[in-house]
């Protein structure tokens, strides 16, 4: 089950993933079980209850598990685009993010990978790394806009047949 706001695990920075450790392997399996590439682009381990630095992402036609991702370069040029999140189902906001990033991470076996991404894929990795740092996309919004969005989120949760949905979101774009 995907953890939703205001679950405290979403606000705690995740600890380093140790490739091959039982905890990391368990987190990877939980990510793979919870991730639905038809409804989402990415998912961080803390969103499924594991406070370690692991994420699963869809980059093009590939689904990748990344351990300990970190941004090593980011463009000064920003893009503003809509973001949603499985942990805040039912709401979206326009969020500024760097247009291009370079991310260093490890694959499931611990081998170092370097990803040069732009556009939606850069936004996706920044969004998932934010999760691992205990941040949500709403933290990039001005205070008044964040407050308004959280009020809308509470209304959506109350009116949702499931209460706080753990899957998908209404809206035109896939949640990050």
Task: Give me a quick take on this structure.
With 176 residues, the chain is of the alpha+beta class.
Q: Can you walk me through this structure?
A:
By secondary structure, the chain is an alpha+beta fold. The protein has one domain (8-159): Alpha-Beta Complex (Peptide Deformylase). It is built from three helices and seven strands. The chain has helices spanning 22-34, 120-132, 143-159; strands spanning 42-44, 54-59, 62-74, 78-83, 93-98, 100-106, 112-118. Strands 1-2-3-6-7 form a five-stranded antiparallel β-sheet. A two-stranded antiparallel sheet has the order 4-5. The chain starts with 21 loop residues before the first helix and ends in a 17-residue tail after the last helix.
């Amino acid at each position: 089950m995907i953890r939703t706001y205001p679950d405290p695990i979403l606000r705690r920075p995740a600890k380093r993933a140790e490739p091959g450790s039982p905890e990391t392997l368990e987190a990877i399996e939980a990510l793979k079980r919870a991730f639905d590439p038809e409804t989402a682009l990415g998912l961080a381990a803390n969103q499924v209850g594991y406070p370690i630095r692991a994420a699963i992402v869809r980059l093009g036609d590939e689904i990748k598990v990344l351990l300990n991702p970190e941004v090593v370069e980011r463009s000064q040029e920003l893009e503003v685009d809509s973001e949603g999140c499985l942990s805040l189902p039912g709401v979206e906001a326009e969020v500024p993010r760097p247009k291009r990033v370079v991310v260093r991470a490890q694959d499931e076996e611990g081998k170092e990978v370097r990803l040069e991404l732009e556009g939606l894929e850069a936004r996706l990795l920044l969004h998932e790394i934010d999760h691992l740092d205990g941040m949500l996309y709403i933290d990039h919004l001005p205070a008044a806009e964040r407050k308004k969005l959280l009020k809308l989120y509470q209304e959506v949760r109350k009116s949702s047949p499931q209460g706080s949905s753990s899957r998908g979101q209404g809206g035109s774009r896939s949640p990050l």
